[in-house]
Amino acid sequence: MSSPSRQRVIALYKQLSYLGREYPAGADYFHKKLKSAFLKNKDLSDPVEIQKRIDLGDYVCKEIEAMYHINKYRAMKKRYYEETQVENIQSKLENTNWADGTVKR
């Protein structure tokens, strides 16, 4: 493995390890899966295949970050809105015609 891809793989591992601290199934579970995935691919030597794995790791990072943002949003919504208000807001959003900005009643 060339030095730039080695550095990128190490940086990806560190980033995923950091993101795994708040994983819903538990940090230990996440780190075991992370380590096994990286060890499984440690013998790759084809630069194209290595780049594919790095791209997949970047995608996983983005998905985990999106999951965390959704969880934060849901928790904040529960704190500030009562359940009936949330249902009213959701029904208005579902009945909104986004093309002309009108709300069906």
Note down, in words, how this protein is organized.
- This protein has 105 residues and is mainly alpha-helical.
- The chain has one domain (3-94).
- It contains four helices and two strands.
- It has helices spanning 3-19, 27-40, 47-80, 83-95, and strands spanning 96-97, 102-103.
- It has a two-stranded antiparallel ribbon.
- Helix 1 (3-19) packs parallel to helix 3 (47-80).
- 2% of the residues are buried.
- The mean pLDDT is 83.
Summarize the structure.
The protein contains 4 helices and 2 strands. The chain has helices at residues 3-19, 27-40, 47-80, 83-95, and strands spanning 96-97, 102-103.
Count the strands? 2
For the report, how would you describe the main beta sheet?
2 strands, antiparallel
Shape: elongated
Number of domains: 1
Radius of gyration: 21 Å
Distance between the termini: 62 Å
Order of helices and strands: HHHHEE
What percent of residues are in strands? under 5%
Sheet with the most strands: spatial strand order: 1-2
Please give the share of residues in helix.
over 70%
Continuous helix count: 4
Report the uncertain regions: none
Helix-and-strand structural type: mainly alpha
pLDDT averaged over residues = 83
Topology of helices and strands:
Layout: H1 3-19, H2 27-40, H3 47-80, H4 83-95, E1 96-97, E2 102-103
Antiparallel strand pairs: 1-2
Helix pairs in contact: 1-3
